[in-house]
Amino acid sequence: MRIFIFCILLSVSFPVTAQLSHSDAANLLKNKGLEELAAYDMLKDLTANVGHRLSGSDGYEKAVVWGKKELEKAGADSVWLEPVMIPKWVRGNVERATALCGRMQYDLTVCALGGSVGTSKDGIKSEVVEVHSFEEVKALGSKAKGKIIFYNRAFDRTKVNTGEAYGGAVNQRTSGAIEAARVGAIGVLVRSMTNAIDDEPHTGAMRYNDSIPKIPAAAVSTIDANLLSELLHKERSVSVTLRLSAKTFADVPSYNVIGELRGTEFPKEIIVVGGHLDSWDKGTGAHDDGSGIVQSIEVIRLIKALKVKTKRTIRAVLYANEENGLKGGRAYAARERNHTENHIAAIESDAGGFLPHGFGVSTDSVRYEKIRAYGSLLEIVGADKIQRGGGGADISTLQSIGTVQIGLNPDSQRYFDYHHSNNDTIDKVHPRELELGSIAMSILAWVIAQDGLNN
Ligand SMILES: [Zn+2]
User: Fold this and answer.
1) Is 253 within 8 Å of 327 (Cβ atoms)?
2) Sign (positive/negative) of CA torsion 285, 286, 292, 293?
3) Helix axis angle, 58-74 relative to 292-305, nearest 10°?
4) Beta bridge mates, 409
């Protein structure tokens, strides 16, 4: 009886939470995480038994079943699927490019960019023009008519954060076909989005504008981008034949996969942890974003194992279709507008399963300072660098309902060596680095679930 009264004095509605301090919780999460390295086992299973999982593919449907099962195994109080229509784009078997230069022929290693139209069976053939910016494309004017535009602006190697280098180059991939078609070009080749000099092409999303002709677009490996550039500097005329079998089908129905640990005091206050369940159809999406998926499931597993229920709800969302449409993120945000829940914070992991340095936070200065103060708890896993600005594509859709955006920031040096290519496989992931990311997310989710983010 005395214990009972003592508990009532501590906290009327849920006494047991008061028994675990933040630093005790952080230590328990760290020890269990590093002891068991379960995120890596999940990732091994996902990459081996599901493999790549582009929206609209059988792989994605398998991933939905896999994600639901893993969230149940992790001990979520409830697990469910939420329907969403997603795009279906299929690469097909043919992606070939040959450079013709005098009497010499060079096969270029290419792959279709995601969303590209295909070519006819014989492909397109034309002279190539190298550019480094949209200004150069514009300046070509009528000289671009009937040509293949070759975008060859490399990553800025002086950027320490490779995400910034990606940001400085990626418009060639996303909008290059639109800008080239605007001046009458018939196709584009884009230097792969990576600092690595190798023979792997890196795919990724590109878009069209309905009022401008849709022309085929392919990524070329950095080795062959350098070769093509060299040929163009030596010879007056280089032409390329490009054949792609890519095709877009009608959207198909699928799901976001969701599981949660329900809060005891404020169950309608939600902290989302998440990543995207889809991947490109190259490699097995081990870093992008298999890592974010298994880390999010691991948050549920680790916090469940504390055997202390949190005051607020922690919800893992495995988003559909981040790579070529963001349909999962949009559907989740749209459904939220019709709910009475309050999404106070969302933590996304979508920058690879590398050693975590900390988190990037997008919110007002009061809440930012509150999260920054948790840096000292995150020191035990070396993830104490809390910076302004950050989040993730999937959770960005929650910005409109005022959710604090938080992105896990792992080391960025190797990410784009693998990103969207055949290089993105399990052997590039280190079990302890991956787990440290899960633990960092768990600690942050735990403290926000206990303390909230107001005052
Ligand atoms: Zn991603």
Assistant:
1) no
2) positive
3) 20
4) 358
**Cβ contact 110:95 at 8 Å:** yes
Residue 157 is classified by DSSP as T
**DSSP reduced 3-state for 30:** helix
H helices within 110-247, ranges in order? 134-140, 162-169, 171-182, 222-234
Active site annotation includes 322:
yes
265 phi and psi, to 5 degrees?
-95, -40
SS3 string of 279-338? CCCCCCCHHHHHHHHHHHHHHHHHHHHCCCCCCEEEEEEEECCCCCCCHHHHHHHHHHHC
Distance, in Å, from the CA atom of 440 to the CA atom of 291, rounded to the nearest integer, reads: 14
Distance 352 CA to ligand 1 centre (A): 8
Burial of 112-146, coded b for 16+ CB within 10 Å and e otherwise, reads bbbbbbbbeeebbbbebbbbeebebbeebeeebee
Q: How far is it, in rounded angstroms, from Cα 100 to Cα 433?
A: 45
Q: Tell me how far the alpha carbon of residue 13 lies from the centroid of ligand 1, in angstroms.
A: 40
Q: What DSSP designation does 360 have?
A: E
pLDDT in tens, 260-303: 999 999 999 999 999 999 999 999 999 999 999 999 999 999 99
Dihedral of CA atoms 239, 245, 250, 253 in degrees, nearest 10, equals -120
Separation of alpha carbons 35 and 37, rounded Å:
6
According to DSSP, the residues that pair with 173 across neighbouring strands are: none
Cα(111) to ligand 1 centroid in Å equals: 18
Give residue 187 CA to ligand 1 midpoint distance, Å.
Answer: 26
Give me the sign of the Cα torsion angle 373, 343, 358, 309: positive
Question: For 361-390, what is each residue's pLDDT tens digit?
Answer: 999 999 999 999 999 999 999 999 999 999
In which band, very low, low, confident or very high, does the pLDDT at 455 lie, cut at 50, 70 and 90?
Answer: low
Predicted confidence band of residue 336 (pLDDT cuts 50, 70, 90): confident
Task: Give distance in angstroms: CA of 346 to centre of ligand 1.
Answer: 16
| Pick from 84, 92, 137: nearest CA to 114 | 92
What is the 321 CA–ligand 1 centroid distance (Å)? 10
Q: Which of 200, 322, 323, 435 is catalytic?
A: 322
Domains in the chain and their CATH numbers?
Answer: 11-87+251-451 (3.40.630.10), 92-245 (3.50.30.30)
Helix (H, G, I), strand (E, B) or coil at 210: coil
What is the model's pLDDT at position 327? 98
CA of 445 to the centre of ligand 1 (A): 21
Could you report the per-residue pLDDT of 140-187, keeping only the tens digit for each?
999 999 999 999 999 999 999 999 999 999 999 999 999 999 999 999
